[in-house]
């Protein structure tokens, strides 16, 4: 049986491993395929492709799926649309993600200013953690706050400083879900709702969300996921069947920023079969 991981982050966004290191780790773990899905950026894909070619020359065939994780706003909540099998060379995709990156940078500076106003000695350079090309997210803020003693862990960092209800938080101007899905589709990709159960919606509210996204062109639901417990996967499978969607699965690997989550295996609970990739490819071929 071949296994895959279709939700992976590098240090181009808020992971801690370079794209090359992620590829090498995937080979070490004997995965058949991975999708690089950094937040609102595709900058890590080319390096990952080069690393994959190098591994192929060494005799290991790892399939690299170009992807992205796009933030969108739904009823004042932040939801994430994965784009799998995208054409990262698509100029419209590049333009929209570049604009989103600029808006994110402006928002980050405002949050820095808010924290500094309360004598928290934080700077933009400090948040880069010696990775000048990284896309800064709230995970970077949390890492800084923990390392400098302002919070003991991620939960406290978000509760005191980074959560929606804190005085330091600055909202972003997100794409709409419709625009995010359209962006993935026009770039030749497959739009997937990432980790549906993490939005803390009731099952009825989640049904409404999925129905709406389906009308915009949603193709898949991330069904196999690191934090699933109990009947979680079964719940998502019912929505997959109801709305005739495809299943995907991913660990949401971030390296040491989410130390409990391992590439390919999540918290030890994941085995994502290559069969899911086969079905995604079949959909693209029919399309």
Automatic annotation (TrEMBL):
* Single annotated GO MF: 5'-3' DNA exonuclease activity
What sections of the sequence does the record tag as coiled-coil? none
User: Any idea what this protein is called?
Assistant: PHP domain-containing protein
The lineage's top-level taxon is Bacteria
Domain Polymerase/histidinol phosphatase N-terminal intervals: 4-74
Q: One Pfam family, short name please?
A: PHP
